[in-house]
Amino acid sequence: MKKRIFALCLALVMILSLAACGGGGTTQPGTEQPGTTGTGTGTGTGTGTGTGTGTGTPAAASASADAALANSLFVNPNVGKGMYSGTAEPGAITVECSTMSVMNTIKMTYNTELSIARHGWDTLVKLDAENNIVPAAAESWESAPNAAGEVDMVWTFHLRPGMKWVDSTGAVVGDVKASDYVFAWKELLNPDNAAEYYAFAAIFKNAQAYYDYKSGKEGAAAVEWEDVGVKALDDLTIQFELETYLPYLLQYLKFEVLSPVCEEFYNKVGADAYGTAPDKMLYSGSFYMTEWVTDNVITMKRNPAWWDADSVTLQTIHFAKYSDANTKYNAFAGGEIDIIDITGEQRAMFTGEGFDVISYVGGYSYYFQINTLDGPNADHPDATKSDMSSKSLRKAISYALDRRQIIDTVFKNDNQPAQCFTLGISGVNTTEFADAVVAACGGSLYPEHADAAKAKEYLAQALTELGYTDASQINVTLMTSEGSQNELLSQVVQEQIRQTLGFEPKIEVLTITEARARRNKLTYDMFMGGWGPDYNDPMTDLDLWMSGNGNNHTGYANPAYDALIESTKTETDPVAREKLFIDAEKIIAEDQFIIPVYWRHEDYVASEKIASGAVRRSFQGYFLAYTTLQG
Amino acid sequence: METISKERFAYVGENAKEREAITRPSMTFMQDATRRLVKNRVALICVVLLVLLILISLLAPVVSPFDYREQHYSHTNAPMGTVCDQPDCPGFGHKHIFGTDTLGRDIFTRCWMGGRVSLLIAFSTALIDFFLGVFYGGISGYFGGTTDIIMMRILEIINGIPYLMIIILLRMVMPGGVLSIIVAYSLVGWIPMARLVRGQVVALKQQEFIAAAEALGASPSRLIVKHLLPNTISVVIVRVTLSIPAAIFSEAWLSYMGLGVQLPLCSWGSLAQAGIENFRLYPSQLLIPAVCISLTMLAFNLFGDGLRDAFDPKLRR
Amino acid sequence: MLRYVLKRIGYAVLTLFFLITIVFFMMRALPGDPFIGDKTPSPTTMANMRAKYGLDKPVTVQYLMYLGNVLRGDLGTSLTYERPVVDIVKSAFAVSADLGIRALIFAVIIGVLLGAVAAIKRGGPMDTFSMVVAMIGVSVPSFILGALLQYFLALKLNQAVGHQVLAVQGWGNFKQTVLPAFALGLGSLATVSRLMRTSMLDVLNQDYIKTARAKGLSRQKILWRHAVRNAIMPVVTIMGPTTAAVLTGTFVIESIFNIPGLGKYFSMSVKDLDFTMIGGTTIFYGALLIVCTLIVDLLYGFIDPRVKLEG
Description:
heterotrimer; A: alpha+beta; 6-stranded mixed sheet; globular; C: mainly alpha; 13 helices
């Protein structure tokens, strides 16, 4: 545990020390830096051009570190029990993977797709098993101030030499160049691709303006690709200038949509065909894809040309999609799959048999988002007036919920009652940012068990606010999307509200697309939502509730909250910055435009075939390259 | 050998009128069918069973000390016969005859609430199915030619529209729940029936008795209603008994897709769907709705057999 | 005959046109927006996405463009999978058709035999047996049947004998096809055997059977040449749409046995608002349905000489 805390702190300190470093060195304009040479060696300790100020040298770079790391990965507690032996195919594992519709990294949106990308391609940096940033495609990097003297605005990344592109047969077809990364980012900003996660490439200077201009946005100034502050200086060096200071840049660069795309190959197969089949892509990661049956199974094989292939013993990974929880269980018991996610009932069965279930936090926090508007406004012309516009009613419902009971009846697993909104983000002095919030607030912001007295107290206020005489006049609809768990949860919440507050909210089950459309139009009262972090910084969660954020579907607009979040963008002291985020959490609890309910813990079981090395945690749905097998 | 004395016989004389009288009471088609149906013991038992299922579904939720939506957190997934130990609950001390579900709701009460929904859907859609299908198929088959071709193409078009799309669109314009399920299923459910009846009519209208009726000047409507349709009745009845499970399953499938009845209401389909998720741990949660569905189906099928035998003019002797 | 077929093909094209038109405008009325996911893209990105799929143009223009593309055999790119609909449908249909043909052969052969024998030996043990099979087929929802089959006949059986007899799930080898084909076929088998039984009973009471018997034909000949051939008519009628439905897969069986078939796309495309996929699957299914009905109508003429194909 201590080691983990230390490692996390190290990661943050590293980022922040870069931030804290000031001035010095030669300032280079982002676009021109002739004469820069690649590092050429594998040591990666500041052997760059020496222009950088804060030289980002990880504790120990390169392959040796990864080998050491491989040993510290997850160890399967079930090995040797003789209960679930796993699949028969030697050297291969089959793991469950829910959504895998799109394999073109530029267009990916689902976590599970990103998990597959994590094996197929190397981003500049990656996370190790402890979620520390470690070198991946880049073996070293340094930063410099920009022309205006702002620190940490110009970054130079030195790629690992000798990285190869392989095709779907595993044959080496060329070298991975710095330009392949830059090309992928350019395509990410290409409106023709309509990439949902283009914003990850919009951090570069002028990139957002370029995107807007190319998208034909009204009034956008003409910006060409040459003006965007990202360049491949040579085959192994990438340099870019940031648009605005980004304290969590490395967390950002780990994101898999920033994976490289072989420019030559992409142009050869064409933009439409690229990424539509295993042989329509080239791979640079630990594994390459050999087979892809739409929405059913993706098979990847060990890439011997990968830079750290020596540490990889696993030969094959099958990512299999299952849509039926029973089938999944039967397949696991029948030795047809090695890792499955399980339901609460299945968890009870496994633990009852003495087979250990593994639980991890993916960082997902679940909450009721609420339509706080009392009618249409400029941003939401279709919005309906909701009784939930009464803050007291929202609080009454929050106190009427028995979060523990919800978890025990609906999920039957390790899910925790939500103590604040943000989950799965590292704190400055604590393992979890959430711990810092709880410590600063003197306890959980939301009750674990129902507090009938408080709930009724708020209900009385709500009735006055709404001008009702009796609770039965309150008209609240619980919108929910289909799925047995959603439906169970809605029914428990409905019953809890009925018993504590004396009115019964209606339940409306919709298809997920219709529910989302109504959520976005604010024609709903209450709707369950979940949010998982994209990168390891509280910002990934807390900027959500700024007014005008595209994902804020509550109608909540508070200038004080906006100002608070804005101020974190310039605050360079990590502790002070965290304090600002804690204040934001307090505002959420005070205004209760969302009612946090639970923090999700994800349960899975691994067959005894897997000895160690299967990484599953937040930001890393799967990383299986260093998996070792039994026997 | 015993001899019979002549006095025991008397000559009654000739009466032409009485000689011609029909001594057996004359019977209409319906009377005849009913008589034969009542004679069929299996069919009768099935009718009794169906009536019982309907009565229990109507009464059980009213009589039960538990509400169908009331959740008992102290005994979730309780086995059959568990006594309610939650003092604040109106059913305190009463037995959960069928146990409780994953939210601690009384399965007995829910099972019969579900029965109401499922039986309502089954009966109403079967009825609509029957009338629409027979009517449409009869007309199409009888007139043939262009009418037939156009009417059959319309069926193909309706059949080609994704069912889920119809459901979702209907739910937009109608209040969700049982009614929209009935309407949606009725919109597409009658198509196999229409096709079947048409096929039968096409074959039948070549037969001599139709030519005879036509020659006697029977109108098309009379020909269809009195001559053609009664002869298709056996196939139609089988189809109706099969369309009842289809309707119940269609609802169950919608529950599987998450578009079933309004929560917390339930149906046998949705109960079975919930039961299948953990049938290894709590088999009774699956068994109870499954038995209810199967029992209903069995009763309908055997009853359908009886009806077939009773109504088919060809089996009339 | 040829004239009849040509005429029918002409009608088929017309039917498809109406079907496409109706479905096209119906799917635009579906609630929701295909580009809003859990997370909502920025307005600019949404506009880019719309432009990419041509959804930024007026609906009538889109409709005309779509018709033009369909005529050229281009069903567009799936919004969900970002790949050509034709490719996805092609590979998924190969799987569904394979499974469907197995299920159909099983259902028709066993169903017709069971129904015929049940009618001939009315009230006998075969009658009861066919009734029981039909009962299971029609009274157990496929999601229960599939799950139970999988649990008892794959998992428990394999554990009992110590090696894999039947696979739990998946698609590729024979061990994987047995259970889904059985589960898929059982429902049709029940329908076929029940229909066959009633229609056989009807036929056995017909005068021509009595005539044949009076002529002194052998029992076998009467039954198979005269009775079954006539009794199979209602079965043939129902086979048209059933074939189309079975060949294109069912969502429930596919998801229980984890088979990469076409069935899921019918349901999921509507739920995901994958417009091009809805259109593609509808056209494909519609065309298949029309072809199947046409074949059935032609078969009518072959099986029952009384039916004239009116051209």
